[in-house]
TrEMBL record:
Protein name, UniProt field: Uncharacterized protein
Annotated source species: marine sediment metagenome
A single MF term (Gene Ontology): metal ion binding
UniProt-listed InterPro entries: Metalloenz_LuxS/M16 (IPR011249)
Length: 79
């Protein structure tokens, strides 16, 4: 397992383990063991299912504003 790069990442990992009831902090070892046990066929099946063309998905698009120079000021009354 990769060493934590800083204290923030270490504390984040440890608090996540506590939140997951992993009081012995074995989450990384369990994850590595699970990844080691994955077969190539399982990975291919996962990728095919995840990126299937007929899998339901949301598509987010954006439309450019007509006039970018106009800025709208927000105030507490407009919210």
């Amino acid at each position: 397992a990769e060493k934590d790069k800083n204290l923030r990442l270490r504390s984040q990992r440890l608090w996540l383990a506590i939140g997951n009831q992993d009081h012995h902090f074995h989450m990384q070892q369990k994850l590595l063991a699970a990844l080691d046990n994955l077969s190539l066929e399982q990975m291919i099946a996962y990728i095919r299912e995840t990126f299937s063309a007929d899998r339901p998905r949301y598509e987010l698009t954006s439309v450019p504003k007509a006039n970018k120079s106009t800025k709208t000021m927000l105030s507490s009354q407009s919210l």
